[in-house]
Specification:
Rossmann fold, 44% helix, binds magnesium ion, 8 strands, two-stranded antiparallel ribbon, alpha/beta, 9 helices, 6-stranded parallel sheet
């Protein structure tokens, strides 16, 4: 039985219409005068810190901890502004799915597993009333490698329960093949949803335990038992 459910954010819980991507491009231009950085960058399923390090190195800038922090400070400021103007939307079925999870006889603990830094995650989710359900999380500022983030989330979940959680007690819900890969890295179950633009066929091929067009199309009970 699943004891810990870990949600990805972008394309899984919400669609921001590119607020993060826009804030990234704006930061690159404001701080470094680099135009069009967001068009040349691959964002999906990656961590904020890995994306920023790649940008800094490709543009001949320092990429020490402090340099990444400096970028993030401006990025989160601009992201906050963009989210207030255009918060985007909650993906179909998310609220009902979370409610179903909390109503289960033995409700699993809910957490986040996301490449967003913690503050970025909060800025994206709070406008949608989606910041409160999470007991724990692993974020882009915990590690740059998403598969390591899954291990960190598993460790935090295990600490919460006071025992080592087994892989099939953990369910990862995400919208990209990288989410599926990080679920597999900890031998967790994986529910892949096609709400982030990925095709159901591709998600199926990547080895997801379940694939659904949206969270409206699958019941929490079905994936947690
Ligand atoms: Mg995503």
């Amino acid at each position: 039985m699943v004891r810990l459910v870990l949600f990805d954010i972008d394309g899984t819980l919400i669609r921001t219409g590119g607020a993060g991507v826009g804030a990234f491009g704006q930061t690159a231009e404001l701080l470094f005068g680099v135009k069009g950085a967001s068009e040349r960058t691959h964002f999906h399923g990656r961590t904020d810190t890995a994306i920023i390090r790649e940008f800094l190195l490709q543009n001949g800038k320092g990429a020490r901890h402090w340099d990444i922090r400096h970028f993030l400070d401006a990025y989160t400021f601009l992201l906050d502004h963009r989210m207030q103007e255009h918060p985007g939307e909650v993906c179909p079925g998310v609220l009902e799915f979370i409610e179903d999870l909390t109503r289960m006889k033995q409700p699993p603990v809910l957490g986040l597993l996301t490449g967003n830094v913690r503050l970025g995650a909060e800025l994206k989710l709070r406008p949608h009333g989606l910041w409160d359900p999470w007991v724990l999380g692993a974020f882009g500022d915990d590690h740059e490698d998403r598969n390591q983030l899954a291990r960190i989330a598993l460790d935090r979940g295990s600490r919460h329960f006071g025992r080592r959680l087994k892989g099939d007690e953990v369910l990862v819900i995400g919208d990209t093949v990288l989410d599926v890969a990080c679920a597999r890295a900890i031998e967790a179950r994986c529910l892949a949803v096609a709400t982030g633009g990925g095709s159901p066929e591709m998600l199926k091929e990547s080895g997801a335990t379940w694939v659904a067009d949206t969270l409206e199309d699958i019941r929490a009970l079905e994936v947690c038992q």
